[in-house]
């Protein structure tokens, strides 16, 4: 984990209000693994004062480049969306605990909703490579959107399932509905990142199928390193965990999604 | 040039500290901040029992600042001593334990428990906690209570110092630093109450109560509805409080609230602070404490000053 200034190598819109930002990654900082995240100072010296957290959406060691996908939602992300190649960003990372490998013999089902597509895309590429070497089946990536206009202009792995709530593209319905319709004779291993209702639906599915469920969570953060306890997330037993240091990837069956 | 700062019997190596709550117990920032180069590390609040903290969300973004309602999440006194103190003891900077509780006895238990331990240099008393015995109103808004609580804690720390001396251990009398709340009509009244109770120093200021409302959800953004406002937004409030408090009492004042660089710290030192703490700025720039100290040193050089305390004398 290091803090460093990184040149932006590209910033491109991939859907309405969605952007992919690529930047030079300093290898000494450590390996930015799927599920791990970085924080970025988004604006002037102290306004906004809180760094913005983003999950890695790719890492290309050969090009020395990492990326994250973000949605323009507030002043921090509005500032980020105005960057250009050659500008510099203040990066702190890699932070947090990423995904663990799926169990041998399982079929990884990767579910992304909204901005959760970034870490899922990265994990899909990674698991596809590892599956080729054998201990588990090839992963299936399913991404959910409200409507066709939100589909990202990105290179997606072959066989990616696209779902839209309004049926304007791909499967008509939520990714959770698609999940129930997916006939998997192989025991599934679930990986997901997205809005709480989607995460809760996957929790119900995983419980019904008795399948492991690794959930990448998000929360407002202040320090990003486990010091301030600001990014708490509630567990079903009533206790709290820090998204930044205890996660952001948790056993999804433990999280109180329906708060 | 002498950068050290004396707070009671405690000598801090320099005037720049990391504020309570922001910096955890130090270990979280290992590798990002040269912790040993700080003047003081003010720990996350310690309460007698472990506290899970408040419901989430606990944070909200605000103009030049943020709101938090963490709820003093901490592992409790015993776990602090067993798990956090061993690493803190090895630090070169002063270790000031921030103390919180729901009752006066809670505060007392923490101070008494830590008095039996070596490696702690002082206590910062968070009087912004809701007082259970007084219907949840903060300790810090009742001057009689501030005075009594301060006296009880001062007595406990005196007894602890004597006990350590008897057993041949380090006998330094650890300072009681009362952290004042700005959410009162007259902060100098709180300051005088702490002084009357025997406080060795004051920290000025804690966060200001604030609220952000989410227009989409039509609810307050924080689960607890209100939280503490920190960051550059509150700096002028803190500087004014330090200016007034340092003239109302004879105690050293440690200034905090929105400090992110040497220029900010110098405003506090000119206003009358003996030392400063950086809080929220560390979230944005972990290197801010080191930069601040370097800037103070450069200022002292340019002004031909030998000691930090001379800075306050420059204010016209």
Explained architecture:
- The complex is a heterodimer of chains A (about 260) and B (about 325).
- Helices cover about 15% and strands about 35% of the residues of chain A.
- Chain A contains four helices and 15 strands.
- Chain A has helices spanning about 75-80, 115-130, 175-180, 195-210; strands at about 1-15, 20-25, 35-40, 50-60, 65-70, 90-95, 105-115, 140-145, 160-165, 170, 190-195, 215, 230-235, 240, 250.
- A seven-stranded mixed sheet of chain A has the order 10-9-8-7-11-12-15, with helices on both faces. In chain A, strands 1-2-5-4-3-6 form a six-stranded antiparallel β-barrel.
- The longest helix of chain A is centred in the middle third of the chain and has 16 residues, at about 115-130.
- Chain A is globular.
- Chain A starts with a strand and ends in an 8-residue tail after the last strand.
- Chain B is of the alpha/beta class and about 325 residues long.
- Chain B has a single domain (about 5-55, about 70-210, about 230-315), classed as Alpha-Beta Barrel (TIM Barrel).
- In chain B, about 35% of the residues lie in helices and about 20% in strands.
- The longest helix of chain B is centred in the middle third of the chain and has 24 residues, at about 145-165.
- The interface of A and B includes residues 92, 239, 245 and 259 of A.
Number of helices of chain B: 8
Q: How far apart are the first and last residues' alpha carbons of chain A, in Å?
A: 32 Å
Determine the structural class of chain B based on helices, strands and strand pairing. Answer: alpha/beta
The oligomeric state of the chains shown is heterodimer
The dominant shape of chain B is globular
Strand arrangement across the biggest beta sheet of chain A = 10-9-8-7-11-12-15
